[in-house]
Amino acid sequence: MKRILRNELGFSIQNENYKDLINFGCYEHFYEDNFLGNFDFSTHYVVLPYLVPYELIKKNHSDISFEQHSKYLWINLDETNYENVNIHPNTIEYLNSPFLKNYKYLSN
């Protein structure tokens, strides 16, 4: 979690605040290719997504890395029609989670 927040998103979070992160499931993703971009062996990811309350993160957008992602997009979960936004289907799976749809802090 620390590595992804810091290296991929340019954020940090205080150690004492990790207890306030909320796991909302376990997802599996299968790809026919691999990190080398070939089909010599497939890839299987197990993903444990967390809801990170915005007020717990410290922002430093100058540290965003584009090594693993070509683009970043901030969306309002209550107002976004996912068909009109170029979002990977696996990410849409998290965004459509019943947990997120019912989470009390997302629809103030």
CATH level-two architecture: Alpha-Beta Complex
Task: Classify the secondary structure makeup into a structural class.
Answer: alpha+beta
Strand content: 15-25%
| The CATH H-level homologous superfamily | Nucleoside Triphosphate Pyrophosphohydrolase
Q: CATH topology, which one?
A: Nucleoside Triphosphate Pyrophosphohydrolase
Biggest sheet, strands in spatial order?
Answer: 1-6
Average pLDDT level: 81
Radius of gyration: 15 Å
CATH class: Alpha Beta
Unreliable residue stretches: none
Tell me the span between the first and last alpha carbons: 26 Å
Question: Helix coverage percent of residues?
Answer: 10-25%
Query: Total domains, how many?
Result: 1
Characterise this structure.
- It is built from three helices and six strands; from the N terminus they run αββββββαα.
- By secondary structure, the protein is α+β, with helices and mostly antiparallel strands.
- The longest helix is centred in the N-terminal third of the chain and has 7 residues, at about 1-10.
- The mean pLDDT is about 80.
Key terms:
108 residues, alpha+beta, Nucleoside Triphosphate Pyrophosphohydrolase, two-stranded antiparallel sheet, two-stranded antiparallel ribbon, 3 helices, 19% strand, globular
Characterize this entry briefly:
This protein has three helices and six strands; from the N terminus they run αββββββαα. The chain is of the alpha+beta class.
